Amino acid sequence: MEFLGISWVEWVGYAAMATVLVSFLMKSVTKLRIVNSFGCLLFVFYGFVLEPISKPIIITNFAIFSINIYYLLKK
Length: 75
Known about the structure:
Elements: E1 2-3, E2 6-7, H1 8-23, H2 29-49, H3 55-74
Antiparallel strand pairs: 1-2
Helix pairs in contact: 1-2, 2-3
């Protein structure tokens, strides 16, 4: 399935990228971590749906997601 000549998998990657980028515009660190966590989860999903799967994308973004959750729960 494609939209504008771009596969749905690639759209997931673009959505993840945009979400992570937007997270850095947040003034509140808490909001930054929440939005960034969502972007990281999108990247983890993206890593799994790529053919072949991308372990570096999955591992890196899961680690960042875990760090974000740790600091969100620490407060």
